[in-house]
Amino acid sequence: MLAADYRGPYRVRAGHKALPRIEHPQDAIVRVTRSCICGSDLHLYRGLVPDTRVGMTFGHEFCGIVEEVGPEVEALKPGDHVLVPFNIACGRCHFCRQGLFGNCHEANAEATAAGGIYGYSHTAGGYDGGQAEFARVPYADVGPTLIPDWMDPDDAVLLTDVVPTGYQAAEMGGIQKGDTVVVFGAGPVGIMAARCAWLFGAGRVIVIDHVHYRLEFAQAYCPAEVYDFREIEDMAVFIKRQTDSIGADVCIDAVGADAVGSALHSLLGKRLKLEAGSAIALHWAINSVRKGGIVSIVGVYGPTGNVVPIGNVLNKGITIRANQASVKRLLPRLIDHVRAGNIDPKALITHRMALDEVSDGYRIFAAKLDGCIKPVLYPNGGQ
Amino acid sequence: MASFLTKPQTVDPATVKGWGVDADPRNDPTYPYRVRSDGEARGMTWDRPSLQKPRVEVLRSVEHNRLPAVLGTSVPPRGASGAIRRGAFRYSESDWRHWLMLLAADRADMVEGLLDDLARGRLPNIPAEMGVRAEWRHNRAGLIRKAAVVAVVSAAAILLLRRRRRYRRQDREHAVRAWPEASMQDGRRS
To answer: ipTM score here?
Structure first.
């Protein structure tokens, strides 16, 4: 089958690999019809995540048609069109039972700190992902969800990660009616977090980035006040000035390891790898939130460590809330929101490409070329 | 002095004066993304799914006491990078050596991947893998600028190396002219 094939930092190609097979009685094989390139795939692409092995297929946001099921699968049958949450979750362990499907203890041999994630390095379990014609889907009765007849598959594929991650970012912010929410990062997740902040009753939503076309999109789509951090001398002072000198009620880090905006963090984290990526967005979030405020983190960082002003977290009494989104928990609510028109996921898609264009897709997304916000690959011609 | 590790130290909460008097279920910063209605069964006590039989080598974090029920089987460890990875898994996720060795293994793996391609008679089209075609289509000026910078830096490096080599040769010739006997005794030929 045709599949994306990682060859080292900044190198991905479409190549031929063996078809996946049922390896566990609860597995399914899914013929992939849509597969996004995610902002967090770019951390892998740039070689920032340890144990990213050459030959791996990335892709944790995909949907497709069930081709084959293992003997213990009861809820799915061949021919079902499903969206596949990015978390691989057993549904039975101590953590899944509490709704923490992103923290399943039965899906990742290589690490206990991370759950199992499709195509996201061996630090997330070593599963090939969905940027391929076919994918192995473990625990097929737990994660995969039937796409409702009325739903456009382009909406469905964004419910596998982008929408739930953005929604959970806002949810973890504990937003109360009238709160001022600052979202760092105008990538797809940041845009979705800003959109969802309104659903929780935010009074003001501010989005910070430096890519103008994305800020303009966020301004119209969310809608939100938007600012370019390159025009701001000091982020904490700027946010204080915007908020009667007390700081934002909630700050959301929707950037993670690949942030730009600080030469020092870029040097330490991205060039020298002495930090787990650049944590400047988190630094700004901690210093821009008000005393007693909440910082919600959905930006992905590596597992080593980052330099952040943790002393200010203590002195300001900040609550930090963070997790990989628990997609399965959120799906029923999010499907309702799509149906009601509160969220329009597919509006984020700017680039639709065939699987054999995957090298160009990564470059366009990573270099922010051609007004790219969200690229989606269509293996098997999208059928 | 006796080690704290060797003596049982379990404390029965019922024996602690005031135990639980300030417990408040509303004091829960994980609401609503953590459901606490499951009787709070603790520990690894769940009914496990069927266990996958590993058919390839799977490295296990030392923080796990057993393999999980399902396993990723993409790209098992191999070659020099695999040896480094196996070494890294002697350390916990809390130990920087674990992650730094894995990063080193990733770089070794990249070289092995290149050699593997060549061994299969395939010359990888690295510019295409890096999506240069897209850059050419959407950012031609930027690509030309980057290529020009790389060309200038490379040319400068080559020039510097050549100059250094020429000066070394001149030094050696000068030494032979000044001290021909010493140079012969050292066995040096210029």
So the answer is: 0.94
